[in-house]
């Protein structure tokens, strides 16, 4: 960071660490044993679409790459009420490693094609026998994770989120600033 940046209050953005997504399988084991939360086999990447043929072509390439696996269901694409696109990937719940690889591929391809500014987050879904749902969310621009536990329309289980943060603190780089723990209402798979 330069002198002018310091005076103007600018901060150097934290680099994303997409390879941290590969720590999700170990985090899933921790959540299973410590909190009784099982992977649902659903993950998603959220991004702001861009106009133009280049973005359309890149998005189609991502979908084609993920759909090439004959054992995995087709990738779903949806648009939320805020105008963000969600690419939803489904795998067998025991294949958290494959799901993490798919999420990594989507983020990497979009980022390498010049659309990194539009990437918002990725999440991997979990649930327990009582019906509690949880998403372990990766903030692309921060390079950190946080838990999101929706309990209904516009309500969340903050106690579960804090508990999960504590369980995963040794597994994943957790976002310390809870004001960045975005409520991703209506996120596919949650």
Structure write-up:
The chain is α+β, with helices and mostly antiparallel strands and 190 residues long. It has one domain: 2-Layer Sandwich (Alpha-Beta Plaits), CATH 3.30.70. 34% of the residues lie in helices and 25% in strands. The chain is built from five helices and eight strands, in the order ααβαββαβββββα. A six-stranded antiparallel β-sheet has the order 2-3-1-4-5-6. β2 and β3 form a beta hairpin. The longest helix is centred in the middle third of the chain and has 20 residues.
Name the descriptors.
8 strands; two-stranded antiparallel sheet; alpha+beta; about 190 residues; six-stranded antiparallel β-sheet
Blueprint (SSEs and pairs):
Layout: H1 3-8, H2 24-35, E1 38-48, H3 53-67, E2 76-79, E3 84-90, H4 96-115, E4 119-127, E5 133-139, E6 144-148, E7 150-152, E8 155-156, H5 158-168
Antiparallel strand pairs: 1-3, 1-4, 2-3, 4-5, 5-6, 7-8
Helix pairs in contact: 2-5, 3-4
């Amino acid at each position: 960071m330069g002198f002018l940046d310091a005076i103007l209050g600018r901060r150097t953005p934290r680099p994303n660490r997409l390879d941290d997504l590969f720590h999700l399988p170990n985090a899933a084991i921790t959540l299973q044993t410590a909190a009784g939360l099982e992977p649902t086999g659903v993950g998603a990447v959220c991004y702001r679409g861009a106009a133009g043929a280049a973005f359309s072509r890149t998005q189609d390439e991502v979908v084609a790459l993920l759909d090439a696996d004959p054992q995995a269901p087709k990738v779903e694409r949806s648009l939320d009420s805020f105008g963000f696109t969600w690419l939803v990937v489904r795998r067998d719940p025991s294949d958290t490693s494959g799901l993490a690889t798919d999420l990594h591929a989507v983020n990497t391809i979009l980022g390498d094609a010049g659309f990194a500014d539009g990437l918002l987050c990725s999440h991997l879904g979990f649930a327990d026998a009582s019906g509690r749902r949880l998403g372990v969310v990766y903030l692309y621009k921060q390079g950190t994770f946080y838990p999101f536990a929706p309990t209904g329309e516009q309500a969340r289980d903050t106690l579960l989120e804090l508990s999960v943060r504590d369980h995963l603190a040794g597994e994943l780089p957790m976002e310390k600033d809870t004001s960045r723990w975005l409520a991703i209402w209506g996120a596919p798979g949650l």
